[in-house]
């Protein structure tokens, strides 16, 4: 032992002096690896030298022999320069122990015969049996390490890097240390202990280092590959307290925060930082720490109700998601948009002209962004796969659920112009964060997406059954905030108000599917709506989204095929956005030239799902959702990327992917058998849209129907699709209940009855402005304000007229095809009620409009720019008449004669117009045939429908109006103002609303309580309904279902609606009062009369309170807390039934106060007055609606004198509207007079 002690002292002394005084020659000799055997009895060999040279403190002095260090014997171990000992023991040079070193036969170190020095670069100086006790002192080890880490000894390295290198050398020596393993492990423990002490001394950010200096050193050392997994694991093993846990979480956060968007332009820097994250998250303890951080953030956000922006700011993964080229759209509110990638492009010489370099940069940017998405998925997947009974997996899934929920404010902008509004831009997560979240969700779903036929079979066999719709309401963070479900279910106002609750265990596939489904809605689709082009980042990564959307379609189709009750229950849970997001994304993919991405999906399954959804209005009720399906079908069957070769008249061609997709779609069984009837069904059902907000939803009924017309026009060219149309028509011809065909044709004719007269009225306004401009003297006489108003009116009206005329012409073509080209079976369906009467009325009304004096004198400049061809429109209607008359030579002419607007004078003028056509041979050929049909009408209407009533004494009534009529009216009508009625009676209630009300889910107690309170308020207080002869409102509600209401609104005095009884049906949907009621006008003469710009002939009511008209402000829209039935019916009476309804039409307000506007208003009022007398007076008396018999009779009996006086005023005011108009008005007034006499 004494010999060992002496040797140890000598070795330490050598470490203090010899390595400083070694000559360059001796150092070189050592580096050459001399392996000379020592003259000793020991069989041990000396280890190879470190490959590095002496440290910076070395000099060319001669080496000292151990015997020359006489003072060492009197020096204690504590007085030694232990730093130098550590330099020797742990290898100051970076080479470490040579891989060629062999295990020693003895733990004792034997010095060289020449200098008696141990070899450099090993830890053997302390590895003698005598050193074991010395090494057990932690204080000595710690002192040595601290000395080594003094700034003057670090040699431009960080303390953490030095410790990591030392630890790595110690690990290498563990394989050959023999019985001294405990001593080496002691040194390892000291290194780790010092490393943790350094990390724990951090107090967060300082003046120079984010996250702290030691954290920065650790991350830099990892980036330089100086820190390996064993050192990291050792540091973690030494971390047991809360302080250590916080330190590691801080390191994790700093590693993520180290990522900067500027790194996109420097991929090498980004790869270095991602490698740091890779190393850092290899140990399972840090993987668990990341999961715990995500869960803690989720719980904090849910419990505090903080904003989505705060959620993003606190998210540890947010820097990874921020590695995106997407611009910061929040700056758009300040008219400034910035992107991290902008400088990459603007720095190019000649930008943007040098497209090749730009494309190179685009490709260079795409790779690092995809690397970040992949890295995020791999890191989170490590956490998910931890073997901790699913706890870490649950943490990640809960965070993902919260992350997609944080995107809810992004959806509040809808799909239109609202996406750039204040709420979605300033309250929702950013596009970068949202798209990163969506990408992470999709990567988790990738293993079970239907990428190919084999995957489809696997999905069918294993996964679809797991996708239970009860997930929507049974999970940890239920989300019922985003509106109604497909088959109807009540939502809540705010997602963050939904209480968090304990999750039921779910399969990982189930969680991923439903979380990703919501991510598509809150994260991806708002960005699609916001940006017209996303190709920069998503050009090829769209494939995963496509496959996920197809998986959703397959799932929906499977649910719809279940028994009716199960299917309905399932669709009541599925949010509407599921289908809207699915179709919007696939439409975007096709529209942006990526149709080839659908090449690998099962198109047959996709088409079966889409047609099933369209054919199931009880499962998918909302026309907005149906519209999104139609948009997808239009994208697939009529892609916008068809290009013309050889000019505008040259043949069109499609990209190969588009052509292949078109052929695949048309070849499916769903397209051949079900698509045409499905499209016809939703076309007819577009009149009743619950919860519509035109400022939020991209839905317009006429645009929607025009899109369907285009699809049908193309599909009918296919023989298989045409057969499905014939079957639908045969069903309609066989009975009066052929719902699909009858509903479709009725809707087409009603659209024409709206669009064509509306276009002609707009053209009249355009013509009046052109006339005013042509009169230079009169134009200059106008004030500047008047000229400016007309200048603003003119171009807006031109655009609207062009669009409406295009849709009208498309409808005319559809009628031509149906009644002329597709055979007798389809024509026969036109001759069954109600199509027989409606077809006759459409012909009469449109011919009258075209032959009216106003249309005859219409001479707008460049009519072709609007697509207006009066002769062409007339020819369409004459063709319809000839085709139907040929099928029924007697019945159809009699239907023409029975129409109250039939005018032989207008019909004769139409014959003359066609016969005199100079450019159209077909028109001249049709004229005599049309005249033959009119001869069949003559016996029924000898006066051509122009019976003129005497406007003199015959219109007088006996007696005079009582002086106390006001009091009598209030006294007699008050008991009848509000009551119940039986809505099941024939004609008592709108049949569409009656069908909706059959749903048990609609009869909710909360809704009924609210309605009961509102009805009570209508009878007293400030919300009491008005009751005066000048204007009154009466209400009926079903005795069993208060959500079924009918309202009678009497026209206000001194308006073209004066004293008429207008019946409106109301239905409160399941989400009431979160969404407004549904309202339809029943007083339309069976779809014949349009009562104003905001009240269509099909009964649609356009009002901002209903969400069917653009609101100037939020106060004009429905508010669940303040809006009510009282507010709605009062808005109808005061905003729609006005003295000047013409100015309710958008853009016409510009003409108010001008001569041009007054003339148009007077002409418009003439039509409203005629419809009021016919349908709100005569028809109301002849056919009083159930529940209002006594109200209508008493109303007209009490006010009969005022009513006849008003009619005389109308006859005098509109005498200049033409003979035909006056004939119709006089006849209607005469009929009314006769009915009022019977009430005396």
Automatic annotation (TrEMBL):
Native source species: Symbiochloris irregularis
Keyword Nucleus: yes
Residue ranges annotated for the UBC core domain, each copy included: 1006-1177
Broad class of the protein's primary localization: nucleus
Lineage: Eukaryota, Viridiplantae, Chlorophyta, core chlorophytes, Trebouxiophyceae
Protein name, per record: UBC core domain-containing protein
Pathway given in the UniProt record: Protein modification; protein ubiquitination
Transmembrane segments: none
Bias kind Polar residues: ranges: 19-32
Subcellular location per the Swiss-Prot or TrEMBL entry: Nucleus
GO biological process, one term: protein polyubiquitination
GO cellular component, one term: ubiquitin ligase complex
Keywords attached to this entry: Nucleus, Transferase, Ubl conjugation pathway
GO-annotated molecular function: ubiquitin-ubiquitin ligase activity
Region named Disordered: 19-75, 93-115
